[in-house]
């Protein structure tokens, strides 16, 4: 039976990943036009997931040095309801600098960072600091997502108070321990380290906004650190080499002079030392005093022992009593008399 040719309906639908469109681009305009904004979607309806269209949720901010805290906030906004179309408004440089101060990234860099976040469906450039009814209607926004802390201005204590009262506000949670201000504080704290790092990577003093003398001083410090690192590595290599050589020498020594060989050498050396300490035997020595090492050792011990004390006896005289010791010299054979 011939195989049926697969139609386009049988083929899997692969969706290409691409960046989120800006609000003025054709794709965003088409999605907005298809949205029926005539029926107001309540919070309960959005939660139930029974609404006939995606719920359009709006989140805004500066998003400087886009980090995981920003990404987690957008993830919460994307998942606040079952079917969400997430619109993100980003303030431009002029408005941000006047309200909050300087940023590390410029507006174009911040726009592009947001466009490539997986949770974002649409980007609004030049977003206002405070949204109004006209802005809400233009972008067909159903809910505004932001953390629940009050954000005050010169005119009010909380720019989101109006939308909270209307039930159009959904709260997200901040990620503790990470923020743009924390990242900037780390860079400022380790400023010298990052300057040395960038100079080593080829940046000029002008690009880093430091003086010529400071540049040369840091480069010399980098060279010294590099020299210390290399010297330490060379020392470690020399020590490792010596350790390997010494281990090899010990292994060869034990292989050449094993346990049995060392025991034999020790016994042989011990016998030679004892023999050297013992004098040669006389011809008149008895047959029992042989030339063995044990005999020599016994004779040596006997000769080294202290002489025994001679016994004393009394000799009675007519007028005196004498003590006599049996100690004879070579010159006379008479006992030595001691007066009592």
Helical proportion, percent range: 40-55%
What general outline do the C-alpha atoms trace?
elongated
- Main beta sheet: strand number and arrangement? 5 strands, parallel
Helix count from the secondary structure assignment: 13
From the alpha-carbon coordinates, what is the Rg to the nearest angstrom?
Answer: 52 Å
Uncertain residue ranges: 1-15, 328-333, 336-340
Keywords:
45% helix; 3-stranded antiparallel sheet; disordered C terminus; 5-stranded parallel sheet; disordered N terminus; 340 residues
Describe the protein.
There is one protein chain. The chain is an alpha/beta fold and 340 residues long. It is 45% helix and 12% strand. It contains 13 helices and eight strands. The protein has helices at 26-33, 43-48, 68-78, 93-99, 107-115, 133-138, 161-165, 180-189, 191-200, 205-208, 212-256, 259-277, 293-304; strands at 55-61, 84-90, 122-124, 143-147, 169-172, 312-316, 321-325, 336-339. The strands form two sheets. A five-stranded parallel sheet has the order 3-2-1-4-5. Helix 9 (191-200) crosses helix 11. The longest helix is centred in the last third of the chain and has 45 residues, at 212-256. It starts with 25 loop residues before the first helix and ends with a strand. Residues 1-15, 328-333 and 336-340 have low confidence and may be disordered.
């Amino acid at each position: 039976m011939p195989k049926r040719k697969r139609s386009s309906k049988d083929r899997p639908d692969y969706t290409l990943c691409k960046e989120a469109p800006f609000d003025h681009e054709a794709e965003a305009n088409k999605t907005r036009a298809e949205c029926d904004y005539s029926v107001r979607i309540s919070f309960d309806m959005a939660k139930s997931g029974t609404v006939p269209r995606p719920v359009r949720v709006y989140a805004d901010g500066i998003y400087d040095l886009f980090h995981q805290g920003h990404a987690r906030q957008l993830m919460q906004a994307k998942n606040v309801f079952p079917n969400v179309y997430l619109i993100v408004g980003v303030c431009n440089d002029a408005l941000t600098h006047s309200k909050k101060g300087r940023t590390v990234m410029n507006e174009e860099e911040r726009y592009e960072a947001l466009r490539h976040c997986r949770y974002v469906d649409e980007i609004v450039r030049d977003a206002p600091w405070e949204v109004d009814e006209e802005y809400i209607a233009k972008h067909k926004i159903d809910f505004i997502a932001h953390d629940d802390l009050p954000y005050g201005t010169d005119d009010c204590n909380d720019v989101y108070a109006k939308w909270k009262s209307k039930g159009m506000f959904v709260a997200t949670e901040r990620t503790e321990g990470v923020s743009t201000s924390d990242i900037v504080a780390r860079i400022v704290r380790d400023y010298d380290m990052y300057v040395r790092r960038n100079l080593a990577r080829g940046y000029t003093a002008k690009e880093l906004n430091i003086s010529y003398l400071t540049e040369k001083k840091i480069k010399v410090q980098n060279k010294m650190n590099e020299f210390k690192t290399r010297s330490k590595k060379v020392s470690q290599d020399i020590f490792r080499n010596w350790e390997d050589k010494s281990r090899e020498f010990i292994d060869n020594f034990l292989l050449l002079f094993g346990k049995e060989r060392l025991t034999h050498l020790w016994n042989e050396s011990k016998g030679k030392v004892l023999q050297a300490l013992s004098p040669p035997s006389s011809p008149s020595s008895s047959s029992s005093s042989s030339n063995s090492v044990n005999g020599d050792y016994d004779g040596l011990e006997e000769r080294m022992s202290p002489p025994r004390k001679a016994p004393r006896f009394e000799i009675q005289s007519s007028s005196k009593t004498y003590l006599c010791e049996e100690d004879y010299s070579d010159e006379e054979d008479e006992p030595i008399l001691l007066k009592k």
